[in-house]
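TL;DR need structure tokens for one chain.
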Amino acid sequence: MARKSYLFTSESVSEGHPDKVCDRISDEIVDLIYRSAAEAGMSAWDVRVACETLTTTNRVVIAGEVRAPEGLMNGDGGVAPEAFVAAARAAIKDIGYEQDGFHWNTAQVEVLLHGQSADIAQGVDNAAGANTEGAGDQGIMFGYACRETPALMPAPIYYSHKILQDLAAARHARQGDAGMLGPDAKSQVTVHYADGKPVEIASIVLSTQHLDDSWNSHKVRAVVEPHIRRSLGDMPIADDCAWHVNPTGKFVIGGPDGDAGLTGRKIIVDTYGGAAPHGGGAFSGKDTTKVDRSAAYASRYLAKNIVAADLAERCTIQLAYAIGVAQPLSVYVDLHETGRVDEEALERALREVMDLSPSGIRRALDLNKPIYGRTAAYGHFGREPDADGGFSWEKVDLVEALKAAV
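>> reply
TL;DR here they are.
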């Protein structure tokens, strides 16, 4: 029996966190290749990207494997670096880094991308037939949804993201003193659960970079507290809530100048804040033949639609794949004793309502397009679907099909 009363904590990191800078650059590379493919007449089904980024003081290194249109390749197995360098600089500028130790215009950007491995290509492409390819790798992926928030996300990660999104919006808009905040920040929210439901905020942790060297933790709290309270909306803050704002004092040197960053180090921030399992694979920098990404999106999509269909209060889904094999090896559903239907029947129904091969997922969610740079910060899940197809896995358009299938 699950506990009913407890505290649970999740963290988020801002777009300017060193690891998130890397995620953003890697995802901008994915978007660049999808856009360039469309412009060059290359099929989006043929795009392949596995891109990793490293950042440190005034240095960016981009490495990995791609299958891209001729305009981005240099003819000897490598890539023509200019467009990739420009994409990295544009991402850093948009985030807001113009400090001596990390500046969008002066940082050295090294591009070490090359053509995709023939062995990996064989494993994916040889299952192809009518746009049905094999999975780009083996792996397990999880999706989760619950009724704790309007986005059907766990409350701790939902509010951790909202705090940083609100502060980032205020920083970009230069709203009063918030305009003096820096791009690098981390949040952490502890939620008190009673009878299994979130009832109040028990503690709030925020560390944010600031550009004014004279600020201390008291000044930072005065600037950020109104934004935090607005971000929490109707969620009550406990009378004895513990606030820790810039608890070490000054935070002036931030971003990759203060700490090296790498793609894929914030996978729990990207998903459910630890409230649900994670298969281990990162999302950013990967095209959607990589089931690390596409199947994680599909499993969230299915879990969210199950909860939206009122078939359960909570739902966890696991999908498992083998490299070069199109269909998942297993589909597992856990309704956490909140279900109104049989879980085995639901497992069968999921295969009926959606083709869970990589190509089936890409078609159903329309993933072959440049929609990934925006996913790099503030979570891949719990976002509003965009008109251009971004965050399509957050739609709840399978509700009736699921009800009919079970």
